[in-house]
Amino acid sequence: MPLRTHLTVLKWSAALYADSVVFKIPKTVSSNGQAQHQWDDVTYRDFLLDVERSARYWKSILAKENISQRSVVGLWLGGMTYMDSRIHPQLFSLRLPSPEIIFELMHRAGAKALIYDVSYASIVHGCYVTTLTAVDIFSAPDVQVSLAAVIAPESRDDIAMVFHTSGSTSGSPKLVTCTYGWLDTIVAKANTIGVPCRPGRQDVIVSMGSMCHIGQTLTLISALQHGTCTIQPTQIAFSSDELVQMVRQCGLNRLMQFATFLSIHLRNSRHDPNVLTLLKGLDEVLFAGLALPQEDEEWARCGAMLISAGGQGSNSLFLRPIEGTKYAFVPITSSSAGDEATHYNANTVLLELVILSDSGDCPHPSLRQKDGHFHTGDLFSEVAPGSYLFRGRDDDWIKSENSLRCDTRAIEDNVRATCGDLVAECVVVGYGKPSPALFVEPKGEIEGEKLRKDIIRRTRHFHSRRYMHERIVDPKFVVVVPKGTLPRTATKGNIRRRAVEEKFKIELDRVYGTNSKA
User: Fold this and answer.
1) Mean pLDDT: which of 133-142, 178-187, 484-493 is highest?
2) Do 340 and 419 lie in a common domain?
3) How crowded is residue 385: how many other Cβ atoms within 10 Å of its Cβ?
């Protein structure tokens, strides 16, 4: 059987669902001086035609630059608008604003060109390959060149596309190389996840984030296979008012959001009956990336919302492996993970999800551990035979409000290296926040404001190379506390990251400008 790809899925779905709406594109209209939410429709047939038009344009442009087919081409785009050749894309988010890092990643992937968003025109210079500005394809000429047929790749191990981890390791993200064999398995897996809630009726979902991130790309592959319509919001953290209009105007019936943004609607539903009624009327409310705050989860259950984690069934937070995958749930040996997880249940056996090497969806070998398997670092407890409840992570990463990862250990190590004469101990927190915050216990007598400014000054270069959601560049995000006040484990004396967030919640709310009672 030929390997399936995102392009074969598009060709197939455009034939089967030609006149169905695949995207609803936002447009802003003004009424009585106020902006109103409205959307334009794009059908599956038109989407395929637009992709082919884009492919013809970029085939012509890249050919003029002597960029051959099957070359890797970097795409530094926002990924949130309706625009997109027979190349292997290397996708970058606009949240990675350093051209130096972009160039390094392209070099590692063997990229031959870079197509970048016009907003970065002033800083894209010194690149070792050809650079091209992304264009609005509808403003560009409709180039009439022939396109090669969509054919199966020569090998399962050929590269289909390259993404990047959402957090930095040692000052730079990792390459996430996706082969055609892996992609074929993901197509099948996505088919299972995206089955419509009600047979015979089109599902309508909302985009979770940028197409430059692997999660939204796989969500689209899932949606296309079932003729699903995807609404593009005005922003990832769209308002509850926009959510209401998505339901009323667009027929939204499955809400998929990162937990941080879903919490906004859950909180608003406590005092807005319209939001509560609409949430309760959805066929599914799915969250991902982070765990929901306990108070929001309990409110959703009391409100009889059909809430789900990871697409495993309505009104269930329990996860089950998809048929055809080969996973293992392995007891962890890290004592630190147990310390961090005690806020759930200290007596529960914690299991790490491991994707085995012979599972078709096992990531590229470059991302696997020494045993050949992919250790996710995600922790679960088995609540019933074959059913698992997510318990957090067994590493030194936290996730920001839009579920992008931040390497806290790297930040802490840099502070210790550059500010060892000023700082006795430190810890980075900020789970579910826009950016991290640094708590420090000072070494000796030093005025707090001066200490904060000195730390920012000494660590500025380090943070300039990191994603925006990983940076600490403002002294207000450095919190100075008396020596010995940061919560520690009883056995090893390690600082407990979650306990710091709980103990200093009021201080964190003040730093981030949030209401501790919200």
Assistant:
1) 178-187
2) no
3) 5
Distances (CA, A) of 328 to 187, 289, 323, 374, 424: 22, 21, 13, 10, 40
- Classify residue 234: in a domain, yes or no: yes
Residue 253 or residue 319, greater confidence:
253
- In this predicted structure, what is the pLDDT of residue 146? 85
Structure confidence by residue, pLDDT tens digits, 44-84: 999 999 999 999 999 999 999 999 888 999 998 877 776 54
pLDDT by residue (tens digit) across 77-119?
877 776 544 456 777 765 667 788 889 999 999 999 999 988 8
Cβ(214)–Cβ(364) under 8 Å? no
> Is position 267 within any domain?
no
Average pLDDT over every residue of 116-140:
89
Q: Point out the domain boundary residue: 366, 393, 420.
A: 393
d(CA 518, CA 513): 12
**Predicted TM-score of the model (pTM):** 0.77
Q: Which pLDDT value is given to residue 28?
A: 74
Residue 110 and residue 246 in one domain: yes
Same domain as 236, residue 112? yes
- Please give the Cα distance from 430 to 455 (Å, whole number): 18
363-368, long-range: CB < 8 A, 24+ apart = 363/176, 363/182, 364/176, 364/177, 364/178, 364/179, 364/182, 366/175, 366/177, 367/174, 367/176
Interatomic CA distance for residues 388 and 140, integer angstroms: 51
Residue 107 neighbours by CB under 8 Å, 6+ apart: 128
Whether 63 is covered by a domain: the verdict is yes
Domain that holds residue 53: 6-252
Residues ≥6 apart with Cβ < 8 Å to 462? 171, 411, 414, 418
Domain contains 82: yes
Phi and psi angles of residue 59, each rounded to the nearest 5 degrees, phi first: -60, -45
| pLDDT range class, residue 392, cuts 50, 70, 90 | low
pLDDT of res. 301: 77
Q: Could you give the C-alpha distances from 227 to 72, 82, 187, 195, in angstroms and in order?
A: 30, 18, 14, 10
Task: Tell me which amino acid residue 421 is.
Answer: D
Could you give the CA distance from residue 421 to residue 24 in angstroms, rounded to a whole number? 56
CATH of the domain at 467: 3.30.300.30
Question: Helix H segments across 270-388?
Answer: 273-281, 294-302, 335-341
Mark whether 119 and 187 lie in a shared domain: yes
